[in-house]
Amino acid sequence: MVQCIINIRQLVNVRTENILLRGKALQELHVLNNAYLLIEDGLIKEYGLMKNLSINNFNEQQIIDAKHTTVLPCWCDSHTHLVFAATREEEFIDKIKGLSYADIAAKGGGILNSAAKLNAATEEDLYIAALKRLNEVMGFGTGAIEIKSGYGLTVDAELKMLRVIKALKNNSPIPIKATFLGAHTYPTQFKNNHQAYINAIKNEMLPIIAKENLADFIDVFCEENFFSVDETISICNAGKELGLKPKIHANQLSISGAVEAGVKLGAVSVDHLEMMDDKAINTLSTSNTIATLLPTAAFFLRMNYPPARELINKNAAVALASDYNPGSSPSGNMNFVNAISCIQMKMLPEEVINASTINGAYAMELEKQVGSVTVGKNANLIFTKQIPSLAYLPYSFGNNLIDKVMINGKFI
Ligand code: NIG
Ligand code: FE
Question: What is the pLDDT of residues 209-266, one digit of tens each?
């Protein structure tokens, strides 16, 4: 089936070739004014200027009139914990009253609270709840997403989570990548015997995950009181042997050495980065590992924002993601991620759009399918309402500026 979108005021992030954007290149956002876009069988076939379109080649059913609005590639959200059993607003209140994220975790709240609830939930209930969230974020413009396990923390429950993610993958119209995060925290019974839990990850979870093809990446929460640098390296190496590339929770609560470990492991990305020193910034900026920033987690936990400007000025490849999860970022709205990245991290509108599209796609190894308006990629597109300029998107934060979302050439 052929479709032709006409009268696009601005066609955003048109690219003839894929490139991971670093440093200054993050500002280069190619926009075609007064454009058309041709779709065939859900894929982008061609685009160009309206003045060069022979509109008579198309019949009425094939034409979609964008009515002089803006069209962008969908957001690529490369870090989420979208599968969970219950929300945690009671901890939100504890935080308002003065407890820190670490205090709540030490009290048995946090990840362990989510794990207890997830262990009690059925696979079907988890699937239904996650699907609802997935549909919701697609409505906010997300057209590709990564989802982690890590609220199971037992062999059965980690596998249950990964099977839910696999079912979402099989039934969802958008590309989904699965990440195994068995090393999210130590379950209470392994608090004083870390090695036994690491053995369970390596000898019991990973072999089944590999056999059933349940994950694309491996993640570890590398942090004081969670997994040490040495533990992180050893778990990631076990994953790598089975073909899972690392993506690491790094430097969220402390300067832990996680960034350097991630770079050494050849991680696809190191994510969070609220606590960075010069060494971590320099190591990351001169590596091929993507710096994935999750500013809504810093916002929600009232922490320092990651040093986006320093990273970009030092030539790092920066991506943005939502970290959608019940404890530190109970929202998967990438429009808000973009706004807060401009407002609090002083990223430019062009930089946030690139970081949330093409670089997010790279952070999931989905750059051949999504992340830009490029011939051959999925027609996963955001149609905005009437907006005066691209900068208006992050500027007008909290307002819903999306008119329609198209996935594989179909409006959802
Ligand atoms: O990315 N930091 C570790 N994991 C999640 C939060 C998990 C939770 O609090 O449930 C994060 O922020
Ligand atoms: Fe996370």
Answer: 999 999 999 999 999 999 999 999 999 999 999 999 999 999 999 999 999 999 999 9
Ligand nearest to the CA of 148: 2
Decide if 367 is inside a domain: no
Q: What is the pLDDT of residues 250-282, one digit of tens each?
A: 999 999 999 999 999 999 999 999 999 999 999
Residues 216 and 242 in one domain: yes
Mutate to test the pocket of ligand 1, among 83, 94, 221 (most ligand atoms within 8 A of CB): 221
Question: 25: domain CATH number?
Answer: 2.30.40.10
Distance 27 CA to ligand 2 centre (A): 26
Q: How many structural domains does the chain have?
A: 2
Query: What's the gap between Cα 39 and its chain centre?
Result: 26
Question: Do 395 and 322 have their domain in common?
Answer: no
Q: Whose CA is nearest to atom 11 of ligand 1?
A: 328
